[in-house]
Each structure stands twice: as C-alpha cells, then as structure tokens.
Amino acid sequence: MSPAEQRWRRFTPRLFECLAQYSRRNFFADLIAGITVGLVALPLAMAFGIASGVTPQAGIYTAIVGGFFVSLLGGSRIQIGGPTGAFVVIVAGIIMRHGLSGLLMVTMMAGLILIFLGLTGLGNAVKFIPRPIVIGFTNGIALLIALTQVKDFFGLAARDVPSEFFQRVRVLVQYLPTLDAATVTLGLLSLAVILLVPRWLPRVPGSIAALLAGTAAVFALHLPVATIGSAFGGIPAGLPHFAVPQFRPDLILPLLPSALTVAILAAVESLLSAVVADSMLGDRHNSNAELVAQGVANLFTPLVGGIPVTGAIARTATNFRSGARSPVSGIVHAFTLLMILLVFAPLAKFVPLATLAAVLFVVAYNMGEWREIGGILRLDVTDIAVWLVTFALTVMADLTVAVEVGMSLAALLYIYRVSQTTTVATVTSEYIAQGRPHILQDKDVPPYVTILRIHGPFLFGVSDKLADETADLSRFAPIVILRLRNMTAIDATGLHALKVLHDRLKKSGRTLLLCGARRQPAAFLAHGDFVAHVGADRIFPHVEAALRRAAEIRAEKNAEPSPAAQPAHR
User: Fold this and answer.
1) pLDDT, tens digit (0-9, with 9 covering 90-100), for 386-416
2) What is the pLDDT of residues 269-304, one digit of tens each?
C-alpha cells in the first residue's frame, strides 16, 4: 500500500468498507434497527431541543442532518449521531448571552475545529482528559439537566427561570406551591411507563411508550397541561428551511472558548460512544474519520437551525441491541425521523411537556455516572479535589470554566505524580534480596501464561496503550499476568483501564493476575472497590507468587470434570 493510500485509509468512512461485503440480510437487519432507533431518538431530540432553549423541531432537525452525516462519513460501524444531554447546559448559556445566531456560529466553529482535529490526528489529545474531570462535568451536567425540567414536570407557574444555579433553585422553591396536580400526575405516570415498560416488554423503548401514551391521553381526555402546541405552536410539517447563518466577525474571539468546549465535548463523547460500540461489536473504530464526520455534521446542522451534534451512547447501544450491522442503520434512523416529521408533525402539538421532562429525568440519571462517585471518593485527596472542583464549577459557574480549571488542576497533578516517580536510594544487600522474586530471567513461564508489563507512569493520556496492546485477546494464554514492577505511578484513569482489561479478559474466558505494584500504585490497587471488582486473590506482591497461583488455577481447571463425564440425573 502506497503512502498516499495509507493516508486516505485513515479517513475512509466505515460505510465504504461495510458496503463492500453487504448483503440483503444485512440490509433488512439495518432497516429494522434504523427504524427502531429512529423512534427512540424522536422524544429525545424534541426534549433536548426544548431543554437547550430552542424549539423541539430544532432538535429533530439536528438528529436528521447530524445523524445522516455521522453515519455516512463516520469511522464507527453502528455509531448514532444527534443532540445529546452533554450540550444542553452550554447551548442554553450561549443562547442567553449571544442569541440563536451566536449558537449557530459556535456550532460551525466547533465543526471546523473537529475537522482540523481529525485531519491532523490531534483528536487523540482528548485522551488527556483524566477520568475525575469527565465524571465531574458529567455529574454536573446531569444535575443541571434535571433541574431545567422541574418547571415542566411539576407545571410550575414561573415564567422566566434564571440560568444561574442558586437563583434557579430559589425561584423553583418559591413557585413550588403553584404546582399543577394534572401535570404532576401525568409526569409521574410517564416516568413509570418509561421505567416499567422495558421490564415487561424488553423490545419496546420506554420513552416511545410514554410519548405515545401521554400524547394519546392529552388528545383524548383534553387534559389541561402544557404541550408543545401551547408552548411552541406545534412543529411545522415539511422539510426544514435551509439558511446560511449570519456571520459576525466581531463574535469570533468571544465565541472561541465556547466553540472549543463544544468541540472537546463532541470529540470526547463521540469517541467514547465509538469505544462502547467497539466493545459490543468486537470491532475497532477509526478515530480520525469519526472526528471528521462529527465536524461535517456540525457544519451542516446550523444550516437548518440545528444545535451541536455528537455520538449518542444510549442510541448507539439501542442500535446494537436492535441488530444493526453497518452505518446503513444510522442513515435509516435519519430517514425515519424525516418521515415522521413529514407525516405526523401535526400531532406533535399534543405532546405534553411533562412527558418530555420525564424522559430527560431518566436521561439525566443514566448519563450521570453516579455509581462512579463512590470510586472517586476512595482515591487520594488530589483526585477528589479535581472531581469536586470540576463538578462544582459545572453546576455553579460555567461548563467552559469547569473544563479549563479542571484541566489546569489535572496538569498540575500530572506533574506532581511524575515528580513522585523519581527515587534516589543506596543499593544494599536487602534491596537485592527483595528484588529477586520480581525478576523474570530465572523464572519458568509456562505456555498457559502470558505476561504483560507496564513500564513508567500509567496516568491519563497513556492508559489507551494497554487497550492497544490487548486489542486482539486471541493472542493471549488462558492466564494473563500483568507485571507492575516498573509501573511508577497510576491515577483514576489508569485504574479504570485495569478494570476494563479485567472485564474483557473475564468475558473471553481468561484470568487476570496482577503483581509487583510499588508503593503509590499498590495504594491505589488496595482501594476497596478495585479489590472487590478484581478480587483480592488476583493481586500478588511479585511475579513469583503470581506464577504459583497461575499453576494452582491451571491444576484446578484440569481437575474439574467435563460435562460429558458428569453422571446424568434422572
């Protein structure tokens, strides 16, 4: 392959590769999956549009145009693009400060930044965002999304709710006595439908069931609740109106920080979603092509009045569960939404805002990664501080400020941890004796064992090297020993990478043993949640002990009777 062909391959959309071996069976699987995820995306798109401070149709237009380009040009087989909760807070803030024209400029500027990141390969820089920061602003965004829906869920009489956190809370508490019984009842019933229907009917998305039931109730019973019709005048039928946004050169510099934040969030969420899709498919996405596709999508959605686009993890997972085989399902998802817009738009005026608020409550809970907080709080005080500052600034200040301050703290933390890896000590006879169980040169490594090693600091920004080295697990023996003798430092991102490796090996029928961790890494590995996740009997002081345990595991498995040898029970 020539250098020019290699460069082109870096940006080749996965759709082209999939169509080379496409079949009728694949098409029908993609057709069903695309229709299913299109129906799931409908209430989410409207809800994200309303929560962002734009119209519900703007959310639908974003899902149609953005979803189409992400699937057409993207680097993942089943990635679904569209509006997501990550942008709700920042989009609402941009509109409040600079109006809709400012938002459209920010979205297009973010699109250009994403294309630049993809074409230059700089998109890999998003891996330098440590996990406490990701968890911090995810927690903050989820809380703010839920807070924006309180008014519609309870039917409060407040007209203008401030965007600032404490003022918003004060106004909501002040107007709490004005809650509307019919609205609260409809909201609670919608919430129950969203949560319970998937348990009874696993193939039926709860959000769609709630949307249909809530809309039918408003239409048939003439419920006196706020709807899309009463708040926005309904959704216009027909194709969206194309218009080039007004370009104001004087706003480029003021809007640049917001554009960078949107681009970073889009890159992080889309690549994270692509990684999740890879884990479900056993595939490997093309990061450069994915970022270019996200950039193109964000360039085109403002032409129809849309909001920022990124990869949507929940819709991508729904796409996989529905049997998607290729990016064709994402294109079908976009056309499904377009057909709904063209045919059923007049009925949208009956959609109750309380039902859409219930949908976003569930989205906020699912995206919040609340279970991760316990693990963060068990880390050292520096990681906790990075998480807490990012979370607090996201909620009480601004997402752009939160990312900037969080990254600055993370950089200082990185420098501190690297400085801690340097040691100066005299070599003594005790030191030599303590090192003997760790060396490999005199050890007999049996064929049923593969030894991996990590050399140097295993911090955010380098943890993906472990995923790269273990991409093909078929190369590994049944027992994998991860030797940490030369790993000088680890952080929350590295610890999460070890958990992911353990889960992947376990899923493939292999066993992970860890050994030889030094002082700082050993303290991290000793955290209760990591020990509970991996198992205390899988962590050893040196490779000699790990090899002994590997021999015991091998003997135990050989001693287990095969299913054919077990007596039949009558």
Assistant:
1) 888 888 888 887 667 777 787 787 777 777 7
2) 888 788 778 877 777 788 889 999 999 999 999 999
CATH T-level assignment (fold) for domain 436-558 = Transcription Regulator spoIIAA (3.30.750)
Please tell me the pTM assigned to this model.
0.73
Contact 113, 263 (CB under 8 A): yes
For the chain, percent of residues with pLDDT exceeding 70 = 92
Going by pLDDT thresholds of 50, 70 and 90, the confidence category of residue 568 is very low
* Torsion angles phi and psi, residue 136, rounded to 5: -60, -50
Q: What does the block give as tokens for 278? A: 């890879």
Q: Which of these, 309, 421, 414, 260, lies nearest to 74 by C-alpha position?
A: 309
Residue 13: pLDDT over 70: yes
- Determine the distance from the C-alpha atom of residue 501 to the mean position of all C-alpha atoms in its chain, rounded to a whole number: 18
Nearest to 554 by CA among 451, 450, 478, 470: 478
E strands, 241-344, in order: 310-311
- Which residues, at least 6 apart from 513, have a Cβ–Cβ distance to it below 8 Å? 479, 480, 481, 482, 538, 539, 540, 546, 549, 550
Query: Are 309 and 273 a contacting pair, CB within 8 Å?
Result: no
- Rounded distance, CA 484 to CA 495, Å? 12
Q: Which amino acid is residue 37, in one-letter code?
A: V
Residue 88's pLDDT is 83
> What is the rounded distance in angstroms from the CA atom of residue 165 to the CA atom of residue 231?
24
- Segments making up each domain of the chain, as ranges: 3-367, 436-558
What letter would DSSP give residue 121? T
Q: Which residues of 333-353 are buried (b: 16+ CB within 10 A; e: fewer)?
A: bbebbbebbeeebebbbbbbb
User: How do residues 183-227 score in pLDDT, each as one tens digit?
Assistant: 999 999 999 999 999 888 887 888 889 989 999 999 998 999 999
C-alpha 357/C-alpha 350 separation (Å) is 15
What is the model's pLDDT at position 567? 46
CA distance 364 to 369: 9
Phi, psi dihedrals of residue 40, rounded to the nearest 5°: -65, -40
Angstrom distance (rounded) from CA 272 to CA 344:
34
Contacts of 558 (CB under 8 A, 6+ apart): none
- Which of 177, 88, 168, 120 minimizes the C-alpha distance to 367? 88
Q: What is the pLDDT of residues 453-492, one digit of tens each?
A: 998 888 776 777 888 888 888 899 999 999 998 888 888 8
The candidate with the shortest Cα–Cα distance to 162, out of 173, 355, 21, is 173
Query: 40: which 2 tokens?
Result: 């799931």
**What whole-number distance in Å separates Cα of residue 474 and Cα of residue 464?**
19
3-state secondary structure of 478: coil
151/225 Cα distance (integer angstroms): 12
DSSP H/E element including 480: strand 479-483
